[in-house]
Structure formats: structure tokens, C-alpha cells
Amino acid sequence: MNALPLSALPHPPGRLPVLGDVRSVDRRRPTQHETELTRELGPIFQRELLGNRLVVVGGADLARQTLDEESWGRVLVGPLAQLRAVAGAGLFTARTRDPLWGQARRILTPGFAQAAMRVYHDAMASVADDLTQKWTESPVIDVHRDMTAATLEVIGRAGFSRRMGLLGSDDGAADGTGEFLDALGRILLWAGESTNDVPMLGPIREVLGSRRRNADIATGRRFVSSIIETRVREGARGRNDLLGLMLETADPETGERLPLRNVTDQVLTFLAAGHETTAALMEVALYYLAAEPEVADRIATTELDGTALTYENVVRLRQIRAYLNECLRLWPPAPGFFRLARTDQVLDGYHVPAGRAVFVLALAAQRDPAVWGPDADLFRADRFLGERLTASSRKFFAPWGTGPRSCIGRQFAIHESSLLLASVLSRFDLRLEKPTDLVMRERATLRPEPFTLVASPRTTVPAAPVASGRS
Hints:
The protein has 471 residues and is an alpha+beta fold. It has helices at 30-41, 60-65, 79-87, 99-108, 114-137, 143-160, 177-194, 201-234, 242-248, 260-291, 293-304, 311-314, 318-330, 362-365, 369-372, 386-392, 410-427; strands at residues 44-49, 52-57, 72-74, 140-142, 337-341, 345-347, 350-352, 357-360, 428-432, 440-442, 446-448, 452-457. It has a domain at 1-87 and 335-398: Uridine Diphospho-n-acetylenolpyruvylglucosamine Reductase, domain 2, CATH 3.30.43. It is built from 17 helices and 12 strands. The strands form 4 sheets. It has a 5-stranded mixed sheet. It has a 3-stranded antiparallel sheet with strand order 4-12-9. Strands 6-7 form a two-stranded antiparallel sheet. It is globular. Heme binds at residue 407. It comes from Gordonia mangrovi. Keywords: Heme, Iron, Metal-binding, Monooxygenase, Oxidoreductase.
């Protein structure tokens, strides 16, 4: 194979003997820094630390090559590997060869199909009602806090038929929820930083933080176990939700049900990954809408205009869906993923041997000006409308991952986000409390630094009622 070895790849300047590219380590904003390096070094480059080479693929065309499931596969590396210590064999952290992964995927797939969103719509709508009521009463909004609350409530109510106590009159959180959230935040920060640490300092930090981390993991699993134990004690009682699916449904292939330990893994995965990624998406969307009120007015006037937010109407909100897609393009909550070469591959003239993993930097590939145009860094939701939508489908866009290991909850997240965003837009004009840039922090996901909005009653269109999907 006439190709260059990976050792010939460009690398950041200032490489040191033994330590390698330690000067290029940015443990606070690793993927954003790697995106900057893509602009300097090209669509594929290397970073070497203590002899370990990371191959970063940031060009859209090269990233698209790695989506071929015959030639490339998924590998558990980076923050997801760290989170395995927390979520065990949950869908995101299980290894594909683990029999429980296939069993759980088969059992849960019907619960995340588009048809299931009709079942969950009422629970999601109740959260939208509580959120907008809260903003009516308290118009100065801590966006990070409220999106955390709203997305956890959606998962709790739609997924487990349980109010989490984070919105409305029961604000203050159900027993243990606040402690769980604090522990979860520290775990996500650890997962992100520990995989992007300075050599030699990382292991020291691991040892020093192990007691706190183990306590946080125990807190998370204890909280989830209480949810499951309550359901088992009370019984299903006709509840049509994800927890019931996991507890009561047999795998169509093996005839076996999920063991309770794996149900705990799955519930913890949905609470952690499900709320974190959707909250990140909502925060980005709200920031851009507040920064560009004329866009918010246009969507409210042309697409909402007092329309009842039934299930049928929400799935037809094309402008809102395009807006969310553009948020996901610019700021994917999961900024990258690893792909493993099944056979010898060539990327941009470099030989990637079979069994070698590369890091596909979606954050960079989805901003590649060679594919997305010279305005790739600008927010333009019309990229995902009309003829431009057709063109976009041929470009690299993978905010939910790829292949059989792509995010099973993407339909859930999109329906939830569309409903919440439509509810807010139809009722409120939003503005930033003070001018501020959108600053992203990394803690296993990309999520905005906290910012504050001010909501005032919308005057351009009548408020759209949030309605059940059942006519």
C-alpha cells in the first residue's frame, strides 16, 4: 500500500523529547483546541504524549470516510470509557460484543421509535407548561439551571413516570435529586478532563480524587436504585414508559429480561447522557435566539402563530427543526467519537493499519469550510431548509454518532427540544441580561457556560397552547 505512515502526520509545534506534544494539551477545552489545530495543521494530524499517538480527523470528507461500517467500527475510548465505571453496561458505555448491549438495544428500540414519541408527548408537554409558568412568574432566567431541570423532568416523567421535583410548585427537588445532580456534574467533569490530562499529572489527580469520585458514583447508583425499587414495589399499573419496557419486556431473540443491575445501568445512562446532551442543545438554541430576536420573531410569526402544540403539529415544525440542526452542527454536545479501522485504510494518503483507532472530531468536520462554505462558522439555520437541506444531507453531519451505536434517544431529544423551544418562543421575547459571548465548557460534553436571560411576554403572536397529542 503506497501510503505514508502515521508518524509522518503533521503535529503541533514545540514537540519535546519523550513528552511529545505536551504543550498542546488543553484539559479545559480539549476539542475546541483541537478544532483550532485542524485549521493550522490540516484535515488530519497527530498528537503524541509519552509515545502514545492520537490521530485526529477534522476534515469533513475524511470524517465521512470513517462512517463506512464495513471498513470502520466503533471503539470505546476516551470519556465514554471513563464513564463505564459509572454506567457499567448502559447502551452508551457497553462494548458491542457484550451480549447485554444487543439485548438492551432490542428491548429498548421500540421505546425510542418515532411512534413512541406520541405516547411521551403529554409528559413532555406537562414539563413545557411548568417551565413557561415558572418563567412567567420569574422572568430572570438561569438558563443552565432551568434547562437541567426541564430535561431531567422530561426523562423522569416520560421515561419513568416520576416527577423529579425540579419545576413548578414542587421546586426544591425530590429526595436525593439535588445530591444526584451535584455528583453527576463532578463525574462528567472528571470523565472529560481525565482523558485530556498532562502526562504524569493525570495519574496523581486520579489518586487524589478517587475517594470523592467513588462516593459520587455510589450516590448516582443509589439514586437510580431508589427509582427502580419504587417501581418494582408499586408495580407497572398500566404505565407505558421506558422503565416498564426494561422491567417487563423480554428480548425477542433470547426470551430473557434485562437483569436489574443492567436496568440500573440503563436508567443512569438515560438520566446522565439524556439530560446533559439535550440541555446543552437547548441552551445553545436559547442563546442564539436571544442574541438574534428578529429570527425568534420570524419563527414565532410564520411557524407558530398561535398553533396548538399537539404531537402532530410539533413534528411539522420545520423551521424549529432546522434551527436545532444548525445548533447541533456548530456545537454538537458530543464533539467527537472514536472509529476503529477494521482493515487497512488510507486517509488523505496516510496508512491507517487495521485495529488502529482515530478520533473523528465532529466539532471541526461540521465546520469545515471546504464542505460547508466560507461562512461555516456562522449560524445559518437555512442550511437545513429546502434545497439546502438536500445538499446538507451529503455533507458530514453526525451529532448523534453513527451506525448501530448511534444515539438511540435522538428522536426523543429532538421531539423534546422542538416542543420546549416552540413553547418558549410562542410565549416570550428573550434577551440576554447583559451582552456576553457564547463560551463553551467541556465536561465529557460541550455545553455553554451559565448565562442569564430575561423573558418578557411575547406581543407579536398569541401564545400557542401546549396540547396533548391525542385529539
